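[Solved] Which block belongs to which protein?

Original post:
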Amino acid sequence: MKNKLVILVGIILVMLVVLPACNSKVAGPLPRSMKGYELYSWQEGGQWHFTLITGTNRNKTITEVVTGETKEGEDGWVNIHATGVEAIKAVLSRVPAKEFVSWSGRGTVGPPAEGEELTIRLELPPTDIINQIKEHAEQLGLDFNVF
């Protein structure tokens, strides 16, 4: 009886680990972007936040950079928010090799949309964090630039 109980508990534990993994989406590679990707960062609530967004010729609004809404459209538009260094490394791992990624403390970001008040200041993290992310990007074969 005791052995059956141990086996039952073991099966339940395995199911608790395996079943959620079966339901999770496996994030595939991101599309190539004619203008590369832009990376933005800011500190909020004691954590570093990052947004990787499709590069364009237009200024992004601060709202679209910091809202945290992850979008991966079929049209190739990418706007992915990540919290923490390991999370942004995972996102960068999805960017195709040789893709251009530019990271700026300010970049070309416009003001919030009319009526919105955002007090978040885009900035680069400390040098050790920049170096960790840059080294990871270079290992991935990305054309990674920090401004």
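(Second protein starts here: sequence line, then its structure tokens.)
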Amino acid sequence: MSVQPAESTIASPPIVQPATAFRDLGTLTRWLRILLWVNIAMAVIAAVSGLLQLKLLSDLNAGLSLAPGEAEANDLREQIIALVHFAQILAMIVLFCIWIYRANYNARQLGAAEMKFTPGWAVGWYFIPILNLWKPYQAMKEIWKASANPAHWQDEPRGSILPLWWTFFLISNWVSNLSFRLSLRAETLPQLINATTVSIVNDLVDIISTPIALVLVRQIYQMQMSHRLRATFA
């Protein structure tokens, strides 16, 4: 599949019209930011729990005995945290996809002409193997530039936060996949220790990457609202 270009426009510079079809991202942005903050909290909780499990596994590997019920309590704690974290991540992904769709749509309503990525493909490229290594970044960069300067977005430099966000996004996904695969194969104590260690690293990466996503979401939202107010009162 390929991204379909927007319909061509006349050669004269586009004029920003009042954003009558603009959809306020305020509520959606607020809920997305809440889930991002919850993700940070869950990553901290998961990292602490992982450290406790790592100590327990290291003690077992060293031949130390555990207190009665200690292993069962550890497993129950890990299962509860994993279940809650999974539900939170799933909700965050769904909301982030909706946010991206509407942010792309709003940029068009603000007057950004000839955007290469449609609202649907701005989301869809995240789910296409191989191409999802760079296409989503290009789509987000286009949203950022079109939000910063809808009338002349092609000439707008990309935001400095974009490569930082995408770098940590890719690192987080890679470490998360590695952690998942190791946990599925872990049977011996050394394997469980390795899987737990990588899981902790994954949580630490999330603690770093999520605040970057928070800043990116806030910047795009604020730029779009600023242009909408200008168009409304022009």
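Accepted answer:
You had them paired correctly. Confirming on the second one: The chain has one domain: 26-233.
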